[in-house]
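Format notes (please read before filing issues)

Several people have asked whether sequences and structure tokens are stored in separate files. They are not. Every record keeps both together, in the order shown below: the sequence lines, then the token lines. Line labels are part of the format and must not be stripped during preprocessing.
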Amino acid sequence: MNVREMKDQELIKTYLKGDDKAFEILLKRHKDKIYTSIYLFVKDTEMANDIFQDVFIKIVDTLRKGKYNHEGKFLQWAMRISYNMCVDNFRRNKRRTKVSSTETFDIFDVLESKDDNMETTMIKSQMHKKVRSLVDELPPEQREVVILRHYADMSFKEISQLTRVSINTALGRMRYALINMRKMAEERNMAAV
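Then the structure lines:
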């Protein structure tokens, strides 16, 4: 079987047998989602790069020690590690995050989209900026759920496990986030949000 076609679990087994290429493929397969979720929490490129590297050092150490046992759920496991490292970083620095772009990174550059004409592209860009500004103003718990659900593409079950709250709490936070975003959009006369 071609290494690129292997499932995550098979890549891990192949890596543990000494094939570093298998881990490289595993890293390439998931790096965008993991890095994006880290960056959205820390809002600093250098810090996100540092945490991203620390996440994969921890993953490699755990794999080599034979302590990985999350069968078929590598991405969720890696996302939990990255989330925990972000939380640790915040505890050390006591900083809050904001979802906004910088000159060097824009979350929407990572997300796949079909090619549009220039007008559609401009409209989408303006809408993305409006939505990002609304997400920035949400309370931290609501902002966290929105980021994990829509930008990291996690299920509510995964979010509840990651944030250590019930699924109902995660769903409730998303519901209130949407209500708050609609209310803010109405107050600002924003169309189509």
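For reference, the curators noted about this record: DSSP finds nine helices and no strands in the chain. Residues 43 and 152 are 15 Å apart (CA to CA).
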